[in-house]
Amino acid sequence: MTPSMRGFTLVELMIALVLGLLIVLAIGTVFNQSSDNYRQDERLSSLQDNLRFAMAQLTSDLEMTGFWSELHDPAAVDVSDPSLGISTDCGPAVGWAWDLLTALEAADNGDADVINSKFPCIDKTEIVPGQDAFSIKRVVGTDTDAASLEEGTTYLQTNGTEGQLFRELAASATPQTPLVGTVTHWRYHPVIYFLRDYHVVAGDGVPTLCRKYLLGGATPAFSTECIAPGIEQMQLEFGVDRDGNGRPERYLDANAVASLVDVVTVRVTLLGRSEQAHVSYANDKTYRLGNAPDFTPSDNFYRRSATTVVQLRNTARLRLVN
Description:
Elements: H1 10-63, E1 77-78, E2 104-110, H2 112-118, E3 131-136, E4 139-144, E5 154-158, E6 163-167, E7 184-188, E8 191-196, E9 208-215, E10 221-229, E11 231-240, E12 250-252, E13 263-273, E14 303-311, H3 313-321
Parallel strand pairs: 1-6
Antiparallel strand pairs: 2-3, 3-8, 4-7, 5-6, 5-7, 8-9, 9-10, 11-12, 11-13, 13-14
């Protein structure tokens, strides 16, 4: 055999094989780490988006609590129009949906029975226990032309001095006794926020921020709309103004507030959780939110918390007017 025809020895082949395996292992390790980082970034990005959107929705509604367009006093609104009707109300008393004097109500750290008794349209089986739930009432911030009123929708009609709630019905003249003078129409928007223990299908294990809203039509009722999956905890603290200067002196939970009329700000704290677990991540942190018990999950979900303070401009103005 000539030198040019000489092949690899067994030792050389083994060395080449080991080097090849090391290169493949290194490439596989880099790929796995990249995939793991991608999954982590994806879960965190989705978590932060959901948390940001949930807080924006809560802030938007809370800021407008008790907004009745030109009217300062909801007691000036007549709610006796015969067009008003509802198949499923959502309060502890008959006619709760039309009670404009209760623009803000809350249940603090309630179990299923407590929240259901406060807001009966929320089914006990879907409630995340130990969390706050709250309702607000207001009208949407732009008036609707009389020719564009939607059938089955509830509106506030006002001439700037007095107002009345009515449900638009094409088959009859509504409201039954229209107000005199130049009037505007504003869509009525009562809503109840709560945490549901699933997102799409019961038992899927994804806590979700949902709300009950007044659905119009032939038989108006409160319907469910879920807006942000992965919201695991919701805590509200109410800033109470006791000396009439428009600024809160203390923050209290709903059970400790003598009258929500004295509330001028609301501090909202949310805890968001990734929708999917990440097996390579262990969450052993302890979270302390509002007056809820400390929470140490000891699982594989990412979490982030967010807090904001919302000024209740309309209810504060009502206190000053009165």
